[in-house]
Design goal:
- 51% of the residues lie in helices and 3% in strands.
- By secondary structure, it is mainly alpha-helical.
- The chain has a domain of 54 residues.
- The protein has a two-stranded antiparallel ribbon.
- Helix 1 runs antiparallel to helix 3.
Length: 123
Protein backbone atom coordinates (compact mmCIF):
# COMPACT_ATOMS: atom_id res chain seq x y z
CA UNK A 1 0.00 0.00 0.00
CA UNK A 2 2.84 2.40 0.86
CA UNK A 3 4.60 1.66 -2.42
CA UNK A 4 1.45 2.19 -4.50
CA UNK A 5 0.70 5.53 -2.82
CA UNK A 6 4.32 6.63 -3.13
CA UNK A 7 4.45 5.84 -6.86
CA UNK A 8 1.08 7.54 -7.37
CA UNK A 9 2.33 10.63 -5.52
CA UNK A 10 5.53 10.83 -7.58
CA UNK A 11 3.53 10.54 -10.82
CA UNK A 12 1.10 13.22 -9.63
CA UNK A 13 4.02 15.49 -8.70
CA UNK A 14 5.70 15.07 -12.09
CA UNK A 15 2.40 15.70 -13.92
CA UNK A 16 1.75 18.74 -11.72
CA UNK A 17 5.16 20.18 -12.53
CA UNK A 18 4.55 19.59 -16.23
CA UNK A 19 1.13 21.27 -16.16
CA UNK A 20 2.48 24.28 -14.31
CA UNK A 21 5.30 24.70 -16.80
CA UNK A 22 2.92 24.45 -19.79
CA UNK A 23 0.64 27.23 -18.56
CA UNK A 24 1.09 30.80 -19.68
CA UNK A 25 1.37 33.59 -17.18
CA UNK A 26 -1.19 36.33 -16.71
CA UNK A 27 0.89 38.63 -18.90
CA UNK A 28 0.35 36.40 -21.94
CA UNK A 29 -3.30 37.49 -22.11
CA UNK A 30 -2.34 41.05 -23.01
CA UNK A 31 -0.39 39.82 -26.04
CA UNK A 32 -3.35 37.76 -27.24
CA UNK A 33 -5.47 40.91 -27.44
CA UNK A 34 -3.13 42.33 -30.09
CA UNK A 35 -3.16 39.24 -32.30
CA UNK A 36 -0.22 37.19 -31.13
CA UNK A 37 -1.74 34.09 -32.68
CA UNK A 38 -2.94 32.26 -29.56
CA UNK A 39 -6.42 31.88 -31.03
CA UNK A 40 -5.11 29.15 -33.33
CA UNK A 41 -3.97 26.86 -30.52
CA UNK A 42 -5.41 23.41 -29.80
CA UNK A 43 -7.72 24.65 -27.02
CA UNK A 44 -8.73 27.93 -28.65
CA UNK A 45 -8.06 31.43 -27.35
CA UNK A 46 -9.50 30.89 -23.83
CA UNK A 47 -9.98 27.11 -23.62
CA UNK A 48 -6.45 26.23 -22.51
CA UNK A 49 -6.64 28.44 -19.45
CA UNK A 50 -9.74 26.71 -18.13
CA UNK A 51 -8.60 23.17 -18.93
CA UNK A 52 -5.07 23.60 -17.61
CA UNK A 53 -6.24 25.46 -14.50
CA UNK A 54 -8.75 22.77 -13.62
CA UNK A 55 -6.30 19.96 -14.33
CA UNK A 56 -3.69 21.67 -12.15
CA UNK A 57 -6.11 22.11 -9.27
CA UNK A 58 -7.22 18.46 -9.48
CA UNK A 59 -3.64 17.22 -9.55
CA UNK A 60 -2.74 19.48 -6.63
CA UNK A 61 -5.67 18.03 -4.68
CA UNK A 62 -4.55 14.48 -5.51
CA UNK A 63 -1.00 15.33 -4.43
CA UNK A 64 -2.14 16.73 -1.07
CA UNK A 65 -4.48 13.82 -0.39
CA UNK A 66 -1.77 11.26 -1.11
CA UNK A 67 0.64 13.23 1.09
CA UNK A 68 -1.83 13.11 3.97
CA UNK A 69 -2.53 9.42 3.38
CA UNK A 70 1.18 8.58 3.37
CA UNK A 71 1.74 10.60 6.55
CA UNK A 72 -1.12 8.79 8.26
CA UNK A 73 0.10 5.36 7.14
CA UNK A 74 3.65 6.03 8.27
CA UNK A 75 2.85 7.58 11.64
CA UNK A 76 -0.63 6.21 12.26
CA UNK A 77 -2.18 6.85 15.63
CA UNK A 78 0.99 6.20 17.62
CA UNK A 79 1.39 8.47 20.59
CA UNK A 80 4.29 10.82 20.07
CA UNK A 81 7.10 10.46 22.55
CA UNK A 82 9.63 12.99 23.57
CA UNK A 83 13.36 12.42 23.28
CA UNK A 84 13.68 13.56 26.89
CA UNK A 85 11.20 10.90 28.00
CA UNK A 86 13.35 8.21 26.38
CA UNK A 87 16.48 9.21 28.31
CA UNK A 88 17.16 6.99 31.30
CA UNK A 89 19.25 8.22 34.23
CA UNK A 90 22.81 6.93 33.96
CA UNK A 91 25.38 6.27 36.66
CA UNK A 92 27.04 9.59 35.81
CA UNK A 93 23.89 11.55 36.54
CA UNK A 94 23.26 12.04 40.25
CA UNK A 95 19.88 11.09 41.57
CA UNK A 96 17.57 13.95 42.38
CA UNK A 97 17.89 15.16 45.94
CA UNK A 98 14.80 14.69 48.08
CA UNK A 99 12.75 17.82 48.52
CA UNK A 100 13.37 19.54 51.81
CA UNK A 101 10.84 21.97 53.15
CA UNK A 102 12.69 24.97 54.58
CA UNK A 103 11.64 26.19 57.96
CA UNK A 104 11.16 29.92 58.45
CA UNK A 105 12.42 31.12 61.82
CA UNK A 106 9.50 32.32 63.85
CA UNK A 107 9.42 35.45 65.95
CA UNK A 108 9.80 34.92 69.67
CA UNK A 109 6.91 33.18 71.30
CA UNK A 110 5.37 31.72 68.09
CA UNK A 111 5.82 28.21 66.65
CA UNK A 112 7.98 27.74 63.51
CA UNK A 113 6.06 27.39 60.23
CA UNK A 114 7.15 25.87 56.90
CA UNK A 115 8.10 28.35 54.17
CA UNK A 116 5.41 29.31 51.62
CA UNK A 117 5.48 27.44 48.30
CA UNK A 118 6.00 30.61 46.28
CA UNK A 119 8.41 33.28 47.39
CA UNK A 120 6.82 36.46 48.70
CA UNK A 121 8.31 39.56 47.08
CA UNK A 122 7.97 42.72 49.18
CA UNK A 123 6.68 45.71 47.28
Amino acid sequence: MHTFLFIFQVLAAVALIGLILIQHGKGADAGAAFGSGSSGTVFGSRGSANFLSRATSWLATVFFVTSLALAYLVHGTKASTSVVDKLAPTAEQPAAAPAVTPVVPAPEGEPALPAPATPVVPE
